[in-house]
Specification:
The complex is a heterodimer of chains A (156) and B (297). Chain A is mainly alpha-helical and 156 residues long. Chain A has two domains: 1-30; 32-150, Cytochrome c-like domain (Cytochrome Bc1 Complex, Chain D, domain 2), CATH 1.10.760.10. In chain A, 49% of the residues lie in helices and 0% in strands. Chain A contains eight helices and no strands. Chain A has helices spanning 2-26, 51-54, 66-77, 79-82, 98-101, 105-114, 129-141, 147-150. Chain A is globular, with a radius of gyration of 19 Å. Chain B is mainly beta and 297 residues long. Chain B contains three helices and twelve strands; from the N terminus they run H-E-E-E-E-E-H-E-E-E-E-E-E-E-H. Chain B has helices spanning 3-21, 149-152, 285-292, and strands at residues 47-56, 64-76, 79-90, 94-106, 116-127, 156-170, 173-184, 191-201, 218-230, 241-250, 255-264, 272-282. A twelve-stranded antiparallel β-barrel of chain B has the order 1-2-3-4-5-6-7-8-9-10-11-12. The relative contact order of chain B is 0.19. Classes of the chains: A mainly alpha (156), B mainly beta (297). At the A-B interface, helix 1, helix 3 and helix 7 of A face strand 2, strand 3, strand 4 and helix 3 of B.
């Protein structure tokens, strides 16, 4: 029994360590709820979308329900990190910025599908393709600030 | 109360407490698998608490109900850690705590590919009365479960289990293949096993209206798993195999319910297994713990 308790304690220690690791990587960022500082480097991943992926049109571009469905999906899966209005939090950047709003639907779809695993953006291919396109429709419907207000140069 | 019952009570209390304090549940998009794994890891900083049960029939002995609780935490985007606490009731015998497992899954590739590998490493500290049947391995057969709990619990098992998970998602379907190699840390040979599974949501497009009982919230599928013998006698002889249809319901409030009737495919297998489970994902658990210790408010 003593050996079991010791081994269990070791496992709980590792679970706590993994939580601490995740927490330490979040420190140094602004508090939750505060407006995140604009950093164009965060959006560089969008530029890595291959040309073929970038040119893919949204098959739900003319679907009248796509934005409403995308809004519900956003609330269920994305708002916890990107904020209720996609304004960004300390966990994840704003989606209302010029870089996102001027990205092609195909580039946004590619990013959703592949995630940015090393920077905590999960892979969302577990959502079926039509749902990812519905999310893209919703994100593109948000609009945002003009490029002159905060973005250095168009990249997409 | 015995230490094992205290541990179970602790697990259940922890589950209830976390559910109560979690003000921001997040809708999980879970596959319905009980045995197989796909390549999707837990979202970083989120904790998923899962309770599972298996009711099994036993020829020549008493039927059983095994149960386990999983605490699954997304440490990073490429690493998920998980702690299991497990026990079982054998009817007309007793209820006992059978042990725990410490599991880690690592995603080596940054991007999504047609086949996505995940490495799985697990340490198990359990006794011989373990009946959760979370995997098929070696020459595990139905008659192994005929030993009484009092006798079986005297056997202490320390085991390392490795898996290679290969998973693909195509046109809404998830296909996954798991290959297993397990080694008891005592002097016994490597044992092998497999799990194959496929699943698909009942609808691929999301509804434009809020709803709980929408087809896109249900995921149906099937899994097949079993043992492949050991290093000295690799193959299908004296092994057990199961086929199980699956259904999961991802409720927007953050809960996921799963059910699966399983059927033994040969004479070495239990004839029938009924599995069910409930899980809840807690958003930002890591941050919540961090704030308890003086992190960001």
């Amino acid at each position: 029994m003593r050996a079991t308790a010791a081994a269990l304690a070791v496992c709980i220690f590792f679970l706590a360590a993994s939580i601490a690791l995740a927490q330490s990587r979040e420190s140094g960022k602004p508090p939750a709820g505060a407006a995140p500082k604009y950093d164009p480097a965060i959006y560089e991943e969008l530029q890595k979308a291959p040309e073929k992926a970038r040119k893919r049109p949204n098959p739900l571009e003319n679907d009248p329900d796509a934005v409403a469905a995308g809004a519900i999906l956003f609330e269920q899966h994305c708002a916890e990190c990107h904020g209720d209005s996609a304004e960004g939090t300390r966990k994840a950047p704003s989606l209302r910025v010029f870089e996102v709003q001027t990205a092609t639907p195909g580039a946004l779809f590619w990013l959703l599908t592949n995630g940015v695993v090393r920077k905590k953006m999960p892979v969302w291919s577990k959502l079926p393709e039509p749902q990812r396109w519905q999310l893209v429709r919703y994100i593109k419907s948000l609009g945002g600030p003009s490029r002159a207000a905060e973005s250095p140069a168009p990249r997409f | 109360m015995t230490p094992s019952r205290w541990l179970l009570l602790f697990g259940i209390s922890f589950l209830a407490l976390l559910s109560a304090v979690s003000s921001e549940p997040v809708m999980a998009q879970e596959n319905p698998y009980f045995v197989a794994y796909d390549h999707y890891l837990e979202e970083p900083g989120n904790l998923e608490i899962e309770y599972f049960s298996t009711y099994g029939t036993q020829r020549g002995g008493n039927d059983f109900h095994s149960f386990w609780t999983e605490f699954e935490y997304g440490a990073t985007g490429w690493w998920t850690a998980e702690l299991y606490l497990e026990g079982q009731t054998t009817f007309d015998d007793s209820t006992i705590f059978t042990g725990f497992r410490w599991e880690n899954r690592f995603r080596p590739l940054k991007r999504e590919h047609f086949i996505n590998p995940v490495f799985y490493v697990e340490y198990e500290n359990k006794n011989g009365a373990d009946k959760i049947m979370k995997e098929g391995e070696g020459h595990d057969v139905e008659s192994d479960f005929l030993v009484s709990n009092a006798e079986a619990r005297r056997e202490r098992i320390h085991e390392i289990e490795l898996k290679l998970i290969l998973s693909s998602t195509f046109k809404g379907w998830n296909f996954t293949e798991n290959t297993l190699a397990a080694k008891s840390l005592s002097n016994s040979p490597w044992e092998f096993g497999y799990a194959l599974a496929a699943s698909r949501p009942l609808a691929l497009k999301a509804s434009a209206k809020r709803c709980s009982v929408c087809p896109q919230n249900f995921v149906a599928g099937a899994e097949m798993y079993g043992g492949l013998g050991d290093r000295h006698s690799f193959g299908l002889h004296d092994t057990s195999h199961y086929l199980a249809p699956l259904l999961a319901w991802n409720i927007p409030s953050g809960w996921t319910l799963r059910i699966s009737p399983g059927f033994g495919l040969n004479d070495n297998s239990h004839r029938f297994l009924l599995r069910w489970g409930v899980s809840r994902e807690i958003n930002g658990f890591g941050s919540m713990v961090g704030r308890l210790f003086g992190g960001h408010k």
